[in-house]
Amino acid sequence: MTWVAGVIGTALTATAVTAVGSRLEEVVTKATETGPPVSVDQVMEFRSDMYGDSVAFARGASFTDADLAELNQIDQDFGGMDSVEWLESRGGVAPDIVLIQLALSGNRTGSVRITNLEVHPDCSAPLDGLWFEDPPAGADDSIRMHFDLDDSNPVAKVASMDGSPTGEPEDYFPARTISLKQGEQQVIIVSASTEEKYCSFFLDMTVLEGDETSTHRITMPAGSPFEVTASLPLDQYEEVYLGGVVCYPWVKAGNAFFNGDWEHQCS
Predict the structure, then answer these.
(1) Residue 240: CB partners within 8 Å, gap ≥ 6?
(2) 243: exposed, middle or buried (C-beta count within 10 Å: 0-12, 13-18, 19+)?
(3) Dihedral (C-alpha) 251, 50, 105, 194: value to the nearest 10 degrees?
(4) CA-based angle 41:210:107, to the nearest 5?
(5) I want to staple 57 with a disulfide (CB 3.0 to 4.6 A). Which of 40, 103, 129, 241 is the partner?
């Protein structure tokens, strides 16, 4: 019996040492891991040919003849900032739908899981100041998740590959989640649309790490919110500028345009 007790004691001691060692390794690993469980490697707004490159500004925005000359110069500087980037850097907002590309990667030794992506919009009346008309002229980029900001409770929906969802789209979460191993990267295309208002918003990402859940806010690189505004009939804007497939170079719309005389407007 003494021998049996010794064997059992040795086994229990070995098990305890293994358990303590495993726990110690877990504690050391967690202590040496830094940053959030999911790394946000890139956040980038982009445009789709399906929706065009038009841009809207709030009422009261200033745009001078010198600004117009600078905008036209930018359009001629191929390889540099394009007109959309320049206009949005001055406060311009995408109309109807904003497209966001997220590059996310796992930042833990074990795998982590994204279990939700939420949006909490702050909305008001659509922007009706300046309008820069550059309509669509081609095919679309793929979209994976979509938020309808006109919904009272917008949630991530499964989106089609050629635009925002139609019919009765499924919720993306919780039926689907995104698992990331350490260093594994996943690119997610998120869209948000409105036909009724102007909205600014952030994206809140919920991550499951082991049995712990945490929430992490995703913003534009400078920390500012994403923005989108409903478009209005062109005669409701303070000023309208025509570019892209309508006119080249950009020109300020006058009576000829609103009377349907496009040819003389752009000459």
Answers:
(1) 130, 131, 132, 133, 234, 252, 253, 257
(2) buried
(3) 80
(4) 20
(5) 129
Helix and strand element counts for the chain (H, E): 5, 16
Q: Which residues contact 12 (CB under 8 A, 6 or more apart)?
A: none
- CA nearest neighbour of 128 among 57, 33, 66: 57
pLDDT per residue as tens digits for the range 48-76: 878 889 999 999 999 999 999 999 988 66
- The closest of 134, 93, 136, 138 to 247, measured between CA atoms, is 134
Please report, in angstroms and rounded to a whole number, the separation of the first and last CA atoms in the chain. 106
pLDDT tens track for 137-183 = 544 445 589 999 999 999 999 986 545 556 678 999 999 999 999 99
Residue type at position 48: S
pTM score, whole prediction: 0.81
